[in-house]
Amino acid sequence: MKYFAAVPGRKAYRPLVLLVCCFLACFAVAQKRSAVENMSWKGYDLRFKDSTQCFRVLERAAVLAKEQDSRKDEAINYALTALAYRRYSDLDRFRHYSEMSYDTASYTRDHRALAYANMVMGYLNTYIDNSTEGDALNYFLTAYRLFDRLKEYGVCARILSDVSYLFSPHDMVKCRKYSYEALRYAGLSADPDNILHARLAVGSYLFELFKADHQYWQQAVSYYMETIKMAEAHESRITIKSNIAIAYLNLANLELNSPDSVPEEIFFYHIQKAIDTSRKYKMKSIYRNLMGLQGEYYQKKGRYDDAEEFYNRGLAEAAKLPYKDNDLMSDFYRSLKNLSAKRGDFKSYYHYDTLFIPYFKAEYNDKAQKMIQYADFKFETEKKKGQILQLQKENRLQKKNTFLGFAIAGILLVVLILLYLFFYYRRQYFRKTEDHLRQQQANSELKLKLLEKESLESLTEKLSLERRLLQSQMDPHFIFNALGNIQGMILQNDQNNAVSYLGKFARLTRQVLEHSRNEFITLEDEILTLKDYIELQRVRFNDAFDYEIHCDKNVQVQSLIPSMLIQPSIENAVEHGLKPAMSERTGRLILCFRQDDQKRVIICSVTDNGIGLTESKRRKNQNSHTSLANTITYERLSVMSTENSHAGFRIQENEEGGCTATIIIPIYS
Fold first, then answer.
1. What is the DSSP letter of 13?
2. Alpha carbon separation from 376 to 15, 90, 128 (Å, rounded)
3. Which residues of 443-459 are buried (b: 16+ CB within 10 A; e: fewer)?
4. What tens digit of pLDDT does each residue of 426-461 get?
5. In angstroms, rounded to a whole number, what is the distance separating the alpha carbons of residues 78 and 75?
6. What CA–CA distances, in Å, run from 577 to 476, 541, 574, 587?
7. Helix, strand, or coil here: 608?
8. What confidence tens digit (pLDDT) does each residue in 304-349 have?
9. 531 vs 184, 316, 364, 471, 524, CA distance in Å?
10. Element (H, E) at 546
């Protein structure tokens, strides 16, 4: 029944809730008020105490805004004035000032003024048509977005709460979306007033959810218990005390409609808490609803005399209010009629029916009047829109005609200027063309000479680099020693090893010559060549060192790399690192390959446990022989770095002895 349905947003509470929402929504934006805005708020705050003084202060604020020529403050003043007239149900003035606020804010384009204007237009439309089919939703959402830009999170929370009520109960998905979004914004504002209001909106959603499916009853009750706990903890900081009583009232209403019987003492405990809060803060409108709720409780329990007493007490409280709520009065009398029918007391039924009829007629007349007001409002709105569109069309046509006249004059002027410029520059053009052609021909000849010179230098550098590479690829000492080893094996009649060694040497020589002709080879071919080279070196030094070759899983052996780029580093490791230390220990040579797909390079490290970089340099200083292997590798990678900046080469000494040469090789496919 409507008279004690305490869920915010239902018809009985809608006027009160919307007034409270409107007041608190505007109150939350007080951080950046001007003097005019502060004065307007001072007048608006007097609406419950002294209506004459309220409008007097609002008028002074309007005069001050005009004196300061502040359209923004005028729009805000109009919005608050409209809401003050709404408090007294003066639809004509409410609509007049709402539209003035909206028109003025549209002219200023100030976000703060537009936020106020759209908010008040939203409340104007909900006053006539409280549904999502009207324009209220669009106005509310526009106001919400503007306040969100201004970081006025408290106002956003209250607007979204009211939007959630528009969707209840016919669209529970959107009701849930906006109520929980309101709760999020309320948390950002950190204001107990905003948080409590948003929690009531979520509670309204849960109450409607419970009405559709009783399995949500416990969830709704737990949520209201948390809401009450929060409200009690911050009671001193909550401005709108009626929301505290509403929380108790909603919880009692849930307990009244629970699928399982709730203990009487729990129900009346929450009723009493709501009564105490209502009396403490003199909230008569909520107190009357408490009477109706207790009346229904006793009616469900079969205690008809007690139910009748509370219904009559509710009627008495409703009669004390400064305004008449015909809907509420008709609901009370309807409940008394139903109660009399259950008791079989038809005399009382006739009595209450006689009292019910005037309020029912008044309720019907109110609805009819509201429909007439709505139709009139829609007609005026559509008429105004039509006038605005007509004016806009006329303005556009006038602007087009004016623009057309200026455009024709401008075109004629431009044509004359262009004709003059055409003949002037045509003469200058032919004069300069000949000089330009001569200069262009001279420049072309110079560019051609420079290109030829650069091409010759590049070719010379490349041929020199390849020549030095070929010279270093097959060390004459290595070839001489290899042939000596073969001769020794033959003299010792070790024919099998001699043939095997000779075959590897021939295959290596063929691979080196083939690779030297190709600019790129696969990593797999390079590794096979390196294996043959290392094996020959091991035979040369009587297996005085071991070697390992490791490839990471992500290495693609079919990747193309420059040929014979790694062999010089292996030669250095054997000749200058391992060879001097062979008399002291068994040498170890480790080749590791890994691939970086992002940089498109293969990183090869050549590690040995030889005498180390420092000792090798010292011995080189004593020896006149100079190795070109590292120099050539540096030069080759320097050329490649123009195409891939990650290409490079470095040598470092290991802490445990020996050296590691790291070669970063670009991948070409």
1. T
2. 21, 14, 10
3. eeeeeeeeeeeeeeeee
4. 888 888 888 888 888 888 888 887 877 766 566 556
5. 5
6. 19, 13, 6, 9
7. strand
8. 888 888 888 888 887 776 666 777 788 888 888 888 888 888 888 8
9. 68, 107, 103, 21, 11
10. strand 545-551
